[in-house]
Amino acid sequence: MGIDPEKLSDSQLLEELQSLHRTRHDTLLHGSSDALEAHTRRTAELEAEYLRRHPDREVSAGRTREGARARDQ
To answer: What distance in Å separates the CA atoms of residue 69 and residue 33, rounded to the nearest whole number?
Structure first.
């Protein structure tokens, strides 16, 4: 389903991810089992491609276990 993630430009990949993240909640609550499965599969494909292209992406300290623990104290 959809264009092979490797064939998307960086901007197209981000647009696809933004669209999927925007529609995730509605798909979870109201989509059929098939729709949710397809949504999950496509999201995983696109996220894996993003991570492949950006293995050294900036990670916010607050989004790590250690950072989350520090917030709770």
So the answer is: 35
Inform me whether the pLDDT recorded for 59 exceeds 80: yes
pTM summary value? 0.82
pLDDT per position as a tens digit, 23-33: 999 999 999 99
Please state, in angstroms and as integers, the Cα–Cα distance from residue 26 to each residue in 19, 30, 32, 33, following that order.
12, 6, 11, 13
The separation between the first and the last C-alpha atoms of the chain, rounded to the nearest angstrom, is 45
DSSP class per residue in 23-64? HHHHHHHHS-HHHHHHHHHHHHHHHHHHHHH-TT----GGGS
Q: Is the dihedral of CA 18, 19, 22, 27 positive or negative?
A: negative
